[in-house]
Amino acid sequence: MQKKLKATLVTGTSKDSMVSITLNGAQELEDIVIGTELLSQERKRDLIRNIKQAYKSAQKNLQREMMKDMDMDKLKGLLGG
Fold first, then answer.
1. What does the alpha-carbon distance between residue 5 and residue 66 come to, in Å, rounded to a whole number?
2. Where are the domains of the chain?
3. CB of 20 within 8 A of CB of 51?
């Protein structure tokens, strides 16, 4: 199961698509891509905001991906039903 989680990769992007973050199924950071326009001291706040947006987007995409793999029987088993 752990291998499958680590093999699952999802990417999230900031609203302006200047930052993208890739997470594996274990929610470990695999990659981060930052647009060069954000790599200046003057754009530090924008960079931080974009990283947060991209991370949240990746988390949501990962949750969707994990839900695809769970059928109702597995879900009931996890919930003790």
1. 9
2. 2-71
3. no
- Distance CA(15)–CA(33), nearest Å, equals 14
pLDDT in tens, the chain (81 residues): 778 788 999 999 999 999 999 999 989 999 999 999 999 999 999 999 999 999 999 999 999 988 887 765 665 666 665
In the structure encoding, which two tokens stand for residue 12, read together? 């999230």
CA proximity to 13, closest of 64, 56, 52, 54: 54
Q: In whole angstroms, how far apart are CA 57 and each of 1, 16, 33, 75?
A: 24, 12, 14, 24
CATH code of the domain made up of 2-71: 3.30.1310.10
Sheet with 19-24: strands ordered across: 9-13, 19-24, 29-34
Q: Amino acid letter at 14?
A: S
